[in-house]
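Researcher: Next entry: RFX-type winged-helix domain-containing protein (Meripilus lineatus).
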Amino acid sequence: MSTVEAIRTLPTPPLSEGEKPVDYTLLRKNLETVSAKDTVHFERKMGETELSYFLPSRDSGVNDMYLHLGFRAQESTVAHSRVRLVWGILRLRHPLMSAHVEMHDYDDVRFVYPVPTSVDDILKGADANLEYRTQSKDELIDSYLNGPRTLSNSRLSYLVLSRASPYPGRSIPTPPHTPSPTDEPGAQVALATENQSEEGHNYELLICAMHFLGDGMALHTFANDFLGLLGSEKTELELEAQLSEEWKGRWGDNLNDASILPHPLEDNIPLPWTRFRRAAAAVDFQLSQQKLIGGHAFPRRKHPERRTIVPTISYPEDRTKAILKKCKANGVSISAALFAICNVAWARMSGGSREMPVLMYSALNLRPYFTVKQPAPWNSYWFLAIGYFNVILPNFLPGDKVEATFWHRARLAKEQSTKAAKNPMIVSRTHEMARERGERARGWAKEDDERANGTWVPPAKNVESEPKEPVLPPRAKVSSTALMGLSLLGNLDGIYKHANFPSIKLHTLTTGSRQRHGAMLLFGYTFAGKLWISLGYDENGFAEGVVDKFWTESIACVDEFLGQPNIPHTILATRSCALGCALTFTLTLTTSTTSMTTVFQTPTPLNRAGSTPAVPARPPYVPPRPPTDDFEKWFTEPTPNNRMLLALKSGIDSEIAWALDRICRLCPNEQFILSAIPGLADVLFEWPEWFICSGWIEITRVGTLFSLPQILERRKRHALEALFVLRNCAMNPVNAKDLAGRLRARDLILCALHRLPHDSDTNSEFLLYIIEFMQALSDELVLAPPDAPYLANPLPPLQNFSAASSNRPIIIACLGTLHLLMSNPANVAHLSAESPALDASLRYLPLSMDKPLQEAALNYLYSHLSHPPMSKAFLLHPRMASTLKVLVSILLAEQVEETVSIDITGPIYTAPADIVVTKNHELTSEELDSLVVMLEPQRCHQWMRFMFEPNSTGELTQVEFWNMYKDLFSQHQDRCPPLVASEVIKFVSVVFPQAQAMVLPGPPQKFVVRGVARRQDNFIDNRIRCLWNHSQCAVEPLSSPKELYDHVVQEHLGGDSSAIQCSWATCHRTLSRKDIRSHLLTHLPVTPRPREPKEMVTLPSAGYPQPIPDPTKRPLPPAPSAAITYQQAILDPPSNSLTALLCLRVLFRSAFASSDAAPRADEDHFGFPGIIEDTEEDVQEEIASGSDSEIEGERRGRKAFIGIRHLLERVTIRNETLMGWVAEMVDAGIMGTT
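Model: Predicted structure:
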């Protein structure tokens, strides 16, 4: 009899005592039947604020919110059916949580809400967005923040309820904890463990929601409502009746429309916009933005991966009360104090310039300003209602009185926060900010999409348009860089009504969101009577050690300024955050096998200026941990009567569960050898064989409509745990070799793969363990020949699972197992060009956000292409060209580069920009007024000093001298008669002793005054010519556009005619008298800006003339700064990039195989002297020797590599050898033929 037949004849283990047959009629539910309605969808466009959150979240889920709550409750309180009912009631009350998003354009994104047709419809939606896990708090939050995105456009909200696994060392979720023998009826032993505690179990609740659905206030209010319903005294039947009643109240008729959906932020605070109000709002908003001054930021670094961590600290209730009391005594809240703590911590780190202030931002609750209220029952609170405000504080500390400075800055933060909240323009500023954020988000989203599609082109600068004259007063440009953001939630105990859910004991709250690269946000709130401070940031996005130092300094500031601790605070993180703090604290560390609490005593730090000496705290008493019964010697005795072995063979469920529980704890240890306990491996195969033969059929039949009976649930758990032990043991090479040699192991794998359906939830976990069990044995497995019976070959089901399954872990396990099997040269005969696994790997290859899945797809693709016939056949694959693009995209996405710049600026030649003109001095009005009141000869003397200056080579005729005097003072002779000519000439020598009057000989004689000259004035010639009368106007150039405008109006636009023809330069338009003046302005130049005294003009070469008549014809000068900039790799490529490069290399060699055999001989080909290459003949012979399909494949491959040449040119790799491969492919893409 074969092994398979023997498995089928195995007897079913007997029922244990206390188990009774299940009456399935008692499990049926009598749900109210509701008449079905036609499916109706309501739509609403997103507002500007909602768009600003939605568009950036499309790629990686930036700003996806989460709220974690840790609590204790009885198991019945968190039963799946009860949680589903509560979740369904709240999803009915808040329509946006059940909606999905459709994007039609960047400014047309819509909520689409499908109207629930029945109570069952609501429960199905709730069940599809509800998940139970066995993860700890840290694993739950880490998977949400750093793992694949949980939410999507079709899933805007999600609920996760988790209870930590009793086996924290396992990397894969395992079956539920098996009851120990003390669980049997009649056992009266009181256990002190958590599982048997009368207060219930510890649970972790994770509420996930898109940020464009709502804000933190909505999230916490929702959590309070959820806990109020879950912890109420209502039974499940009463909750179900309430759900039915609320559904009827909302959808009992068809009179509803899209107005039932919550309105966007902008519609909840409408303003009656007028042109003046809109202009005033724009000016006010711009002025408020100009006041934001900040010049500090944490030093960042480039890293290909984002990893967000959230170190959290909580203070005990008495310490929290003391902190709040001290804040109240200083006239501030804890929120204002946190602004000051961040400010002082940054200043003590000597971060940034002391001259520039520190700018921090926070959110502002806008719900009190809403003027539009939704009527019941559509008054959902799930909508966005947040604005933003900023706090600016100095970045320096005095040498003394540091504490007084701290409280002063806390009061400054409070004052700025109050002004922001009570500003009379807050509504208009909210509208302007929403409009600006929406425009930015649309621009960035469009650019991101174009970059992803390879169609992005930098926007061209419009150099022809005239610059607009600024409306706002000019101001110097200053930085508005923000240091960090703070989310200050206040007292959350005012939201959570703990008295409404007495059966649920809340003890932990953590909140945050998925962040972009290099983001940071500090949270501060009080919850359960404790003060909580957490810092969420991307640990790969900042310079090493900077954030740790800031966090340490912040904690020290809390202790220093808010009172020394008399009770240690608790750090809830996996990293020590108290370096340098003078206190003792308790650090909770989560390791691979157990959770321990350790007490550290930190050294007293050096005293800072103005700091208070720390008082060491007394270490708390830590009771010794009771030893477990996992590692006693007698459990692992290598004898046939081993305690665990006998328990497995006993047939008693409780004994089997106890033994499997202990072996699950032992199997990860590499010293655990299966062969050391004779018969253990054979016993472990029994329960998985029962599940394959008949168990899964019975479980599927019963579990389709009802929950499993207790006996089936236990047997299924035994099968999963036994297989889990085999899978873990196979990780040890010694055990793997032993198991691979057992025919029973191979039969188990083959039967499971060929018999169990992969699309059944009943079998998913079992199949996953089977595939991973096979993966661990792959190094020892050689497959049967391809012509062997179908059931003897595990490859077809593995390939079908990878192609057809929707279970991600199963897909990864299948591809990983196939990769290991195909890496064995003895198994390559099973490769096929039409393999379903190949199509699956190509389908999952672009999923760059899911690194494990992408890695599995890459590894299988490489093992497939490594076989030469498969690589040649792949060149004919219809997705070959797109696969090459994806492989290059992986290289580009994971490369880390730096910018290198080489300055090549040449010599620069300049000349002054302005032209200095000299002209004779003319009397000013002040000088003339002073001369008129004088008497002669003082008036003559002063006039000469004003008009002339000594000059040894200067010369004026006496007639010219006299005429100037006479023309001026003859007009004022009524006050004082002018002098005669001889007197005036004589006084020249009196005023200027070096000057003298003389007669120059010669025909004719010339009477001159030598030794003086006219005084000269220098000025910048920026005058403007009048071009009226087609550039024939004879008036002198004017000094400003205003003078030119007045001249044209007065001199050329006179007369009484109603129509006037413009004769400016080449213009001939005829306009009415009222329009001609406006038209004239189009010809006049703008008012020239004042030039700096030292402003220069750059010349094309040395000695080039300046000025020139037409500056627009001057050749272009060299650039003032020129540099060659290029990108350079700074890190070696990660594993996925190396695998992608190997795949490209294999395909490249296959595509260019014939051209590589005989390189072209031409003037650029340098061979050995004396060697004659018959290249053309060789190429023809090789081409003739290949089949038509191979020739066509090479042609397509070359064409595809030519198509990706532009992408390969952007690849940079630090390793020269690998970069040489890329360069070879680029060169072939340039010279290759198709």
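Model: Note for the record: The longest strand covers residues 948-957.
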